[in-house]
Amino acid sequence: MRFSLLPSLTVAFFAMSVPALACTAAGDRQQIRQEFTKWVNGLRADRGLGPLQMNGKLDSAATSHACDMSKNAFMGHKGSNGSTLKSRLKKVGYGLKTATENVATSTAAPSSGTAARLWQGSSQHLANLLNPQITEMGFEITIAQGKAYYVFVGGRPRGG
Q: Which of 101, 95, 19, 100 is nearest to 66 (CA)?
């Protein structure tokens, strides 16, 4: 009896060459982020609130959750693995005093205007953006299967 490893090796090679489902950021992500930051800080200024500064750790938490939602086709504050905003912030090393989170999804082309429209039309989401206790923010937009997923994370670091 002749035994060949070729079929097994072919399957193993193919499995190694197929990348895992990647998280896809919106193509004009940087422009959307800049426009959204300008918009939210304009809203805050109109109400006498200080601007939010972008924070890399909050960005990481927003990116992680936006990727989770787009890869797993859901929208919610609880991650597919049971994560919460607090646990996601802890994972990225953000020692928080307070934090807020907005999530949204839309079939419209990714834009800062879509996120603004979705969150400005909801009193709870608007309150998160205008929370006077937050001083920093993270924001991410991912796309999957014809949908854009948006995550805003606002925070104030412990001691801040």
A: 101
Sign of CA dihedral 21, 32, 89, 54: positive
134 vs 32: CA distance, rounded Å = 21
**Is the separation of the CB atoms in 152 and 129 below 8 Å?**
yes
Pairwise CA distance, residues 35 & 133, whole Å: 22
Tokens encoding 117: 């429209």
Is residue 151 packed enough to be buried (19+ CB in 10 Å), middle (13-18) or exposed (0-12)?
buried
pLDDT tens digits along 51-94: 999 999 999 999 999 999 999 999 999 999 999 999 999 999 99
